[in-house]
């Protein structure tokens, strides 16, 4: 039986990992909101606000640890699945498979895992700063309320609860001006990094066996950036003339965040015939 399409394999192996990370961040977001709302409802006392900040920081530290564990487990696992997908295609061509995964594969998986963690750490730091900003504002209003009166604090608390209900505490804007919340950003990072790991595992295993050409998968509903590249043959390294490179495809928009495309082995029949003729003639 021929191997299934790479995008189908990618989806099957990544969805569970994506869901696991999203759940981790969704629960943290809910806990942070609960801590802030609890402090707002308890009244204008400094100890309540200090406890809120300490609890939020503890939640974020747990989130860091959970993110690190996810990156160290999920990314290498999906990288290996990408390499195994390449092996299935190589076996279909009756090629002898190199046994085991060398240092290059281990290093590649480690680099990908670290890059994923750094992206997640960025959002944790952003939420930490926002929580500290909320604490400072509320602490100042607490002092102001103790002078002017409790009604002032009630108004501030009500205003913050309404803002939190509408926008949450985890919303932020990235460098490109796009708005995210903790869940949406985490899901994007998870999908993008698992896709990168799978593709890199496939590419490195194919290159290890001397193959430079891959074919991009196709699926319905592809976006304008990806549509021109569906079914295209790409050179992984650029050494095979006459084909666009993987880097060129990426620069044109293929494999963007949340992209569901992948690629698999492509055999250039003319080149293969020429190689066989040389082997038979030698």
UniProtKB/TrEMBL annotation:
One of its GO terms (molecular function) is structural molecule activity. InterPro entries: Phage_A118_VSP1 (IPR009319). This is Phage minor capsid protein 2. It comes from Neomoorella stamsii.
């Amino acid at each position: 039986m021929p191997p299934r399409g790479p995008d189908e394999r990618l989806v099957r192996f990544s969805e569970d990992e994506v869901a696991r990370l999203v759940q981790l961040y969704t629960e943290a977001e809910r806990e942070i909101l609960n801590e802030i709302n609890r402090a707002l409802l308890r009244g204008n006392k400094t100890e309540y606000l200090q406890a809120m900040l300490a609890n939020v920081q503890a939640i974020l530290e747990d989130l860091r640890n959970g993110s690190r564990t996810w990156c160290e487990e999920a990314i290498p696992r999906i990288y290996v699945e990408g390499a195994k997908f390449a092996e299935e295609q190589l076996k279909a061509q009756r090629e002898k498979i190199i046994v085991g995964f060398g240092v290059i594969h281990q290093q590649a998986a480690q680099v990908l895992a670290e890059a994923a963690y750094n992206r997640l750490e960025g959002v944790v730091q952003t939420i930490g700063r926002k929580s500290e900003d909320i604490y400072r504002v509320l602490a100042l209003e607490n002092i102001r309320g103790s002078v002017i009166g409790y009604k002032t604090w009630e108004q501030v608390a009500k205003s913050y609860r309404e803002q939190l209900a509408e926008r949450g505490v985890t919303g932020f804007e990235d460098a490109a001006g796009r708005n995210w919340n903790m869940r949406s950003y985490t899901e994007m990072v998870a999908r993008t990094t698992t896709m990168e790991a799978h593709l890199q595992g496939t590419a490195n295993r194919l290159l290890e066996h001397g193959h430079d050409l891959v074919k991009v998968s196709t699926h319905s509903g592809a976006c304008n950036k990806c549509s021109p590249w569906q079914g295209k043959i790409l050179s992984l390294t650029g050494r095979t003339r006459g084909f666009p490179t993987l880097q060129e495809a990426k620069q044109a928009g293929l494999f963007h965040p949340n992209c569901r495309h992948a690629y698999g082995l492509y055999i250039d029949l003319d080149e293969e015939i020429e190689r066989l003729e040389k082997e038979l003639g030698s």
